[in-house]
Amino acid sequence: MYNNKDVKKIIESGMRWLSNNPPSMPAHTEELRDLLRFHENRYYVANDPVISDAEYDRLYKILEKFEQTHPQNITSDSPTQRVGAALIKDFPKVKHLVPMLSLENSYNAEDLVDWDRKARELSGMEIIEYCVEPKFDGAGISLVYISDLLNRGLTRGDGETGDDITPNIKRIKSVPLSAHFSEYGIEQIEIRGEVLLSKANFKIYNDKLGEEGLAPLANPRNAAAGSLRIKDTRIVAERNLEAFLYHISYVLASDDNKYGRVSDAHSKLLQMLWDLGFRSPVHEMKVVKGIEAVIKHIEGFEIKRDDLGYEIDGMVVKVNSIPLQEKLGMTSHHPRWAIAFKFKARQATSKLIEVQYQVGRTGAVTPVAKIEPVQVGGVTISSISIHNEDYIREKDLKLGDTILIERAGDVIPQIVKSIPDARTGKEKKIIFPTHCPVCGDELYKPEGEAVWRCTNINCKAQVLERIIHFVSKDAMDIRSLGQANVEKFYEWGMLKDIPGIYTMPLDDLLTREGYGEKSVTNLRQAIEQSKQQPLHRLIYALGIRYVGETTAKTLAQKVESIFELEGLSLQQLQEIEDVGEKVAASINAFFRNADNIAMLKKLERLGINMKVAEKIAHSGQFEGKTFLFTGTLHQMKRSEAEEMVEKHGGKILSGVSSKLNYLVVGEEAGSKLEKARKISSIKILSETDFLSLIHS
Ligand code: IVH
Fold first, then answer.
1. In ligand 1, which atom is closest to the CA atom of 281?
2. Could you report the per-residue pLDDT of 581-623, keeping only the tens digit for each?
3. What is the pLDDT, as a whole number, of residue 617?
4. What is the pLDDT of residue 650?
5. What digits encode the pLDDT tens for the residues 422-436?
6. For 429-476, where are the alpha helices, taking DSSP H only?
């Protein structure tokens, strides 16, 4: 039982394993496994780790090493056994113990009031106690445990039969491989839940697809469902899926007395699951009496929807008493004891009117669909990227088609699908151009790639996009130059390439309309200041294919000056963490190109910083510490503050969790601050506190 363990003792026991005098194997192997299970639970389920990742890894390695030399000693629920055969041949179809029904939907308070009235009439009760939970927006799963061991995991499938995806389920660290159900008098159990991809992990995944020139997925739900069906379990592990378990559909009790103690209320069963090491929504649920209280709670929760680390598409209201659930029973489609309340949709239908083609800085030609303007989740959308030719084919898109679009949280809107049933016969095939829409050169598509490219590096579109990228916020940050100015200056013949930014005759602007002393001085200053940007920004600004901000930072750490990258072989590049074959080839090609080197030399002569800043005396001051900034900062830009943290060895997190050490709060900080206040280990700093910490 994870929640009443003596954490101090457990930490001490971990230190004993890591000391010079560890407990002896095999007598204590199971103790070590339990220790690892405890820490997995703290990290992946409770989101509140009590040892460092490195210590966990060292403990894991001790067990792994022992099991490698004593394979006969391995148990099927050992933490090492999440890693089974890497490749799965197929997913056998298996019947669920109990069919997986879906829930009736409701969309407003009246629907809920109606539903409650029916439930009260049927049960003869005046007021019903409900348990209200988030409706997790992922992929449904069912898990079976027999004699305390995970026996299998299935997808929902058609509700009757699902696919056996057990090896992939084992890769989800918040799903225990074993749990002490026997202590609750349970011999066999089937549990239902949802596999999710957090918003943060979804972003990482989509960014990776983007860097490879592939189309992003429309929402984390599709990503989670797709991930469960991947046949290489190593890739499944990399996705960092999570699972919430929220329903018990079948129990074979070995001791009715013991099971009877928890089985009279749904909320008690969720607590039981939590105590057994599952991530059940005990911290997200609320038990209330009467439908009015349910409605009030749901209204409050919808407002907080965007603050959660994962997507939910509504709430589920469940009758809390299990005997009452049994009395209410089912219709042929739905249980009568539960109902889903759907939040406002973030999907809408529209019409695909026309496709325009944009040429990016690497020459990639991206089709963009112009659609009939439509509101999705409070934002009007009138154009939407359709990525590449394969995507158009896969989604079966035609001009004039009715399309379903979605804006999941803060994800860029995507087309979910076309609706062929709505076709009139007048729709037209989308014909991809054979020539660059800007310079007219023939387009080229390397084998095995999805993207057509214009290979004319002097193509106006590419030149402009390269300059726009160079000056952009996350690159050299010459914001006052911006897209509109770059385009104008190019038209006026003042700016032809990247070094040209630093040699433009800015005074000439004074003769043009709309440019005064002040704006020209600002521009001059911004350009001048950019010369001192740190090396990683310059590397990122060059717009080398596949080199995003993270890779640029990694590269900048490996060299003293940018010209050292020129000397690195393909193999040396690949030895750098996170640099794969494709990325290495792209970097190599960039630095083998004489024009690129000439451009860098020119930039150097113009005074642009090409070197890593001198290591600051305190460089390791924040080693192992995590920071997050919220609200408006006044004494520095957020990107500068984040850079300071990284320079001092710290890391920036994307959200508030117990892994966060410092939240730095600017003006008008909102929900992040509220959330951080509830986690006592997070230190909350003002901007001034932060600066004094840096200078201490
Ligand atoms: S209870 C027999 N609780 O929503 C009832 N379902 O159509 C079992 N879902 O198929 C479902 N969050 O995949 C339940 N907290 C939650 C849920 C939830 C998401 C999904 C589930 C179900 C669908 C309802």
1. 15
2. 889 999 999 999 898 999 999 999 999 999 987 644 456 788 8
3. 43
4. 87
5. 999 999 999 999 999
6. 460-471
How far apart (Å, rounded) are the C-alpha atoms in residues 3 and 6?
A: 9
CA distance 24 to 61: 15
Q: How far apart are CA 83 and CA 75, in angstroms?
A: 13
SS3 266: helix
The reported pLDDT for the residue numbered 432 is 95
Residue range 650-654: average pLDDT?
Answer: 85
Q: Is 194 in the pocket of ligand 1 (CB under 6 A)?
A: yes
Q: How many CA atoms lie within 13 A of 98 on its CB side?
A: 17
Tell me the CA–centroid distance for residue 168 and ligand 1, in Å.
21
pLDDT tens-place string over residues 284-312: 999 999 999 999 999 999 988 888 999 99
Does the annotation mark 135 as catalytic? Answer: yes
Q: Which residues contact 397 (CB under 8 A, 6 or more apart)?
A: 352, 369, 386, 403, 415, 418, 430
Residue 246 CA, ligand 1 centroid: distance in Å: 8
What secondary structure letter does DSSP report for 431?
-
Per-residue burial over 446-456, b = 16 or more CB atoms within 10 Å of its CB, e = otherwise:
eeeebbbbbeb
- For 299, the 3-state DSSP assignment is helix
The Cα 206–Cα 200 span in angstroms is 10
Which two tokens mark 573? 């590049």
7 CB-contact burial (10 Å; exposed 0-12 / middle 13-18 / buried 19+): exposed
Kindly report the protein residue whose alpha carbon is nearest to atom 4 of ligand 1.
135
The H or E element containing residue 302 is: helix 291-303
* pLDDT confidence of residue 619: 63
Q: Is the CB of 148 under 6 A from ligand 1?
A: no
Per-residue model confidence (pLDDT) at position 333: 87
The per-residue pLDDT for range 233-292, each reduced to its tens digit, is 988 998 999 999 999 999 999 999 999 999 999 999 999 999 999 999 999 999 999 999
Helix axes 594-605, 581-592, angle to 10 degrees: 70
pLDDT of residue 209: 82
Q: How far apart are CA 429 and CA 426, in angstroms?
A: 10
| Cα dihedral 384/390/394/400 (nearest 10) | 50
Q: From the CB of 335, is ligand 1 less than 6 Å away?
A: yes
Distances (CA, A) of 400 to 130, 335, 370, 430, 679: 47, 41, 11, 10, 52
Helix (H) or strand (E) holding 188: strand 186-196
Percent of the chain topping pLDDT 70: 98
Cis peptide before 26 (omega within 30 of 0): yes
